[in-house]
Every structure is written in structure tokens, then in C-alpha cells.
Amino acid sequence: MRQEFLPFSTPTIEDDEINEVVDSLKSGWITTGPKVKRFEDAFKAYVGAPYAVPLSSATAGLHLALLALQLKEGDEVITTPMTFASTVSMIILCGATPVLVDIEPGTLNIDAGKIREKITAKTKAVVPVHFAGQPCDMDAIFALAKEFNLTVIEDAAHAAGTEYKGKRIGSFDTISIFSFHPNKNITTGEGGMLCTTDEALAEEVSLLKFHGMSREAWKRFSATGNPNYEILLPGFKYNMMDIQAALGIHQLPKLDGFIAKRTEIAEFYNAAFADVAELARPSYAPYDQRHAWHLYTPLIRIERLTIDRDQFMAELKKLNIGTGLHYKAIHHHPYYRDTLQIPAGAFPNADYASDRILSLPLFPKMTMDDARDVVEAVKTVIAKNRK
Ligand SMILES: Cc1ncc(COP(=O)(O)O)c(C=O)c1O
Q1: Which residues share a beta bridge with 280?
Q2: Predicted confidence band at 220 (pLDDT cuts at 50, 70, 90)?
Q3: DSSP letter at 113?
Q4: How much is the average pLDDT of 226-238?
Q5: Which residues have C-beta within 8 Å of that of residue 63, sequence separation ≥ 6?
Q6: In terms of CATH architecture, what is 255-385?
Q7: How far is the CA of 65 from the centre of ligand 1 (A)?
Q8: What confidence score (pLDDT) does residue 218 get?
Q9: What is the pLDDT of residues 22-50, one digit of tens each?
Q10: What is the DSSP secondary structure assignment for residue 240, as one 8-state letter?
Q11: 230 falls in which pLDDT band (50, 70, 90)?
Q12: pLDDT at 224 over 60
């Protein structure tokens, strides 16, 4: 058995990130400033977006993008049940009703073929989530958006570096929102980026992210700045700080290397679990794409075992293997179950995945020995608890 606990994820922070943060701390300018601008420009260039707005989190980005739609009570926004709470909570907090569409059983992405039947006269937007870093079927989603005049807001929290048919997520003619939480493919501690092709939207989000203020602080307080400012609309405090961007500036050039390492481990897992009937491996979508492998999320076939998924995770922990849970389906949480009043069995694929999914360790600093320990532990737990 492994001697040290292997967490399911840990960020890769090296001397260049640390030195850049120290430089910010010593510089006298630690909040939003020139390093945020540098990170914004670098990220924009990487994904191929004309406009990008750095933020304190992806949740903030979802909030502002949905607010910009000026949703009214009764308006509907379509999304997936296989996501983090904030995707759905931001729809609710903007006054609209989330309408869930079941997922595909293999990729766990929203089933684009089932969206049409959920579109009504009240539908205003679709929020696809690129689950685990694998792109949704965007051609199908864009075709529906065009037909029904819907806005597409891509929840790209998992998708920094993801590509769909040769184009990076972030470059499409829409709005996409990335997360730089420490588990994500690159991190700024906490942080997010909203990318868009819409200049007016980028301007509005930029205002909303910082009190609706006409001029950001670093432009007011620099040697050549003017301390005066005007409030153009009531806004939030969702800005990214320079000490966060200091991390991002050095993480971004490493992203492709991080993805290569994640892919190597994911493919190792896929090969190692090929003959394990008690586990269903995540599958690749059939179209041309680059999976960013933010998560490796097999489904444990609990019907073949004497233990459930939570017990499976507890057994792995006893063997010093950490796991994550991405996700218990949205409608399995008490708040959404009660408010959305989803009838039992409405989302069979999400229900199935929700009870069986777990995230195995996957991060660039992992060694192949670590990955072998994970495979061995998974096989040990299965062998011990097979029906
Ligand atoms: C699918 C999805 N959407 C949104 C978020 C929110 O990201 P953040 O933590 O940056 O607010 C997350 C975070 O885990 C996520 O996984």
C-alpha cells in the first residue's frame, strides 16, 4: 500500500510563480493593476478571443454574463444537471428559471439532441458546460441558438486549453467563462476570465465587475493617472488582483505541457481499466477535439459491488488515494430538488452518473508511479467488494 496520501488534485506552483507574487508584494501594487492586464492580454491571445475580462472567479463571470442578458422572472435558461452549483445558482440569482437537459452517458456533457424539446417561448439562453475539459457538441448548440435566437454562455470552467474542431474554447462567437481555481488546469488561486467577441458586453462586464466605476484604481493612482472617477452603474467587487495574475502569467505558458501530462495519465488509466468490468471509463466525443482532461471521472458500477460510491471513495482513502466528487447531479441537492421540482427519473443518465461517479487523482505533478498506485488501489477495492 502507498505510504503517503495522494490528493485528487494539487496545483503546480514553481519558483517563477512564487517570485512573481513576491515581486507584486514588494512593488507596492497588489490589487488590480498591470499584471492583470498582462494576464488578460496573454489569455486573450492564447484562446483567440477579441475581448477578455479578468475576474475574481468563474462564478462572478457567470453572474455578470447572465445579468447582462437582463433576464426577467419566468425567463428560462437551459443547462446541464452535471455541473457545479454555481452554474445553476447564478441563473436563479439573476431571476430566471434553470431548465435542465439530461447528459450523454459517455462524455457526461449536455445531450445537445435533447435541448430542442426543452426550448419554449421563454428560453433566453443555453449554458453548456464542457465537462471535465471535453467540449460539448457546439455545432448542434449553435444551430439551435441561431434557430431560436438564444444566447450561448459557455461554462468553460474546466476548459482552458480545450479545442473543438480545431478552435480553442474562448474563441467562438459567444461568451465563455473560465475558472482558475486551484484544481483547474491553470490557477490564479481563485480567479476567472470572461471571453467574448462582443465589445459592448465586454465593456458592460468590465464596469459591473468593479463598482460600475469609469476608471480602474491603478489608472487613477499611477503617476500619470487622475484620481477622479464616476460611477456609471451600480456594480460588484469581482476584480482580479495583481497577486492572482502574477500566478496566471507564469501558469499560462505551461498550460499545453500540463494538458499533455494530464492526457498521458488519463490514457494510462483508460488502458489500465480497459478490462475492469466494474468501472466505466469516460469516453471521447466522436468529433475532432482536444480534451483538456481537467478531471478523470470513471463511473463505478455499483450494481456489481457490495458497496456504494461513497464507500468506494472511503475505501480508496484508507489506501491513501484521494478522490473528488464532480458531480452529484444538481437535482440531487436539496435546494434544487425542492425548488426545481424535478420529477423522479427525468434525467436517467445524470441520475446514473451521479450515483457512480468519482474523480481519480489527475494533476501534472503526478508521477506514473502515483498513477500505478491509483490503479492498484482501485483494483484492490473492486476485488475486495465484488458481488
Ligand atoms: C462547471 C463549473 N462551473 C463553474 C465553476 C465555478 O468556478 P469558480 O470556482 O472559479 O467560481 C466551477 C468550479 O469548480 C465549475 O466546475
Answers
A1: 299
A2: low
A3: G
A4: 89
A5: 90, 93, 94, 236, 238
A6: Alpha-Beta Complex (3.90)
A7: 14
A8: 60
A9: 999 999 999 999 999 999 999 999 999 99
A10: P
A11: confident
A12: yes
CA distances 181 to 8, 191, 354, Å, are 14, 6, 23
| Residue keyed to cell 502507498 | 2
pLDDT tier, 216 (very low <50, low <70, confident <90, very high otherwise): low
Q: How many helices (H) and strands (E) does the chain have?
A: 13, 12
Which residue among 83, 86, 88, 297 is best mutated to probe the pocket of ligand 1, counting the most ligand atoms within 8 A of its Cβ?
A: 86
Mapping DSSP to helix (H, G, I), strand (E, B) and coil, where does residue 95 land? coil
Q: What is the DSSP string of 252-321?
A: GGGHHHHHHHHHHHHHHHHHHTTT-TTEEPP---SSSEE---S-B--EE-GGGBSS-HHHHHHHHHHTTB
Cα of 192 vs centre of ligand 1, distance in Å, is: 9
CATH 3.90.1150.10 segments of the chain: 255-385
- Report whether the peptide linkage leading into residue 327 is cis, meaning its omega lies within 30 degrees of zero: yes
Nearest ligand 1 atom to alpha carbon 57: 10
Q: How far is the CA of 153 from the centre of ligand 1 (A)?
A: 14
Q: For the domain 15-254, what is the CATH code?
A: 3.40.640.10
Cell numbers describing residue 252: 499560462
Cell numbers for 70, please give them: 437582463
